[in-house]
Specification:
5-stranded antiparallel sheet, alpha+beta, single chain, about 130 residues
């Protein structure tokens, strides 16, 4: 009776391993997707232009971003992740970590400089061609 349980256990282990490998291979490779869609690389200037359309996300503050400086931290076509420092009408500046999706939309989270608390978020669509 021990042999059938061993065989069933082995079949289950092989099935779980195969499932994990299959799911891992389905994860999106943004650089591959960008190449397949023929997308041009994202430039700092185009991301900064999109960030400048955002409003101050801090509670009690308002107004559009006045200045943004973004720097790519990655070497892929999309440049992910990006570090952006944004000036809104009211101090302090907000530092975001932003990701550009293959469809050129952005999503990021950040904190005001020198402050901690609830994370701020930024999102938008879509980063244009350089």
């Amino acid at each position: 009776m021990k042999r059938p349980a061993l065989i069933v256990g082995l079949v289950i282990a092989v099935g779980v391993t195969g499932t994990v490998i299959a799911l891992k291979s389905r994860e999106a490779n943004t650089q591959f997707v960008a190449q397949q869609q023929g997308l041009l690389p994202v430039s700092a200037a185009t991301l900064q232009r999109l960030i400048l359309t955002t409003s101050d996300p801090r509670p009690g503050f308002g107004g559009r971003a006045r200045h943004a400086h973004c720097q790519a931290l990655g070497a892929s076509a999309l440049g992910n992740p990006w570090r952006c420092l944004v000036n809104y009408p009211h101090s302090p500046r907000v530092r975001y970590l932003v990701s550009v999706s293959a469809n050129r939309s952005i999503h990021g989270s950040g904190q005001p400089e020198g402050a901690s608390g609830v994370p701020l978020s930024v999102s938008g669509c879509c980063v244009g061609a350089p």
